[in-house]
Amino acid sequence: MPEKLSFYIQRSSAFHSLNPLTKLGLVFAFIVIAYTSPFYWTATVIFGLGVLPLAFVGRVQREFLLAALRLLVPVTGFIFIMQSLFLPGGERELFHFWVFRVTVESVAQAYLTVSRIFVMISAFILFLLTTHPSALMTDLTRRGLPGTFAYVIISTLQIIPQMQSKAQTIIAAQRSRGMETGGSLANRVRALVPLVGPLVFGSLVEVEERAIAIEARGFTSRLKKTSLYEIADTRLDRGLRWFLLGLVVLSVAARVLAG
């Protein structure tokens, strides 16, 4: 099985065909509007009418919803409970027990915080599922971004799936040697120690190999780079980016006027 170097899911969809910069701009527009809008319901509307429908348009709704259930729901649920219980202030009490006092204001603030975090992370999940890192790096470098910055961005996007793939390979090798890696909690803890060593040292060796590879490909050369792949940047992409910029400006202006 080939090593999976990203979260990207290959699909034939209108959202996949958008320029990587357009999709990245869409993500940042969602986040900026969610955090600057003066209305507490804005983030919920963005997720319900923006992020979630786009996951269906991109035909990655299954992977998107699985990631949301595994990552977002536990994290945001915990944050919501903690903020509802421990945020100070508030006059309209909903209920209290022992030393905890939950108010309407604390619940509203917790909901606002959680909805914004939900939009931020879910938008990036959608971006990672529908945008190949190589396409993003090619488009950014073509627009004049220094190769060093592009490499840092792509390495950041790839580090988690690479570590997951390497960990699965190590676990499979341990199982082939008769080591128990599943079952009880004690077995899982015992299997963790022989997993960490090869994972860390393998990652260090991989860093050195990457450094040699990018140097051999003239990564630091100041000459103009060319690419075998042309990333399309249509009139629709450019129009969408200007439209998103306008929405961001309107959201920031509304926040300033609202005080």
Describe this structure in words.
By secondary structure, this protein is mainly alpha-helical. 70% of the residues lie in helices and 3% in strands. Strands 1-2 form a two-stranded antiparallel sheet. β1 (93-97) and β2 form a beta hairpin.
How is the secondary structure organized here?
Blueprint: H1 20-36, H2 42-57, H3 61-86, E1 93-97, E2 100-103, H4 104-130, H5 133-142, H6 147-176, H7 185-216, H8 235-258
Antiparallel strand pairs: 1-2
Helix pairs in contact: 1-2, 1-4, 1-8, 2-4, 3-4, 5-6, 6-7
Question: Could you provide a short overview of the structure?
Answer:
This protein is mainly alpha-helical and 259 residues long. It is built from 8 helices and 2 strands.
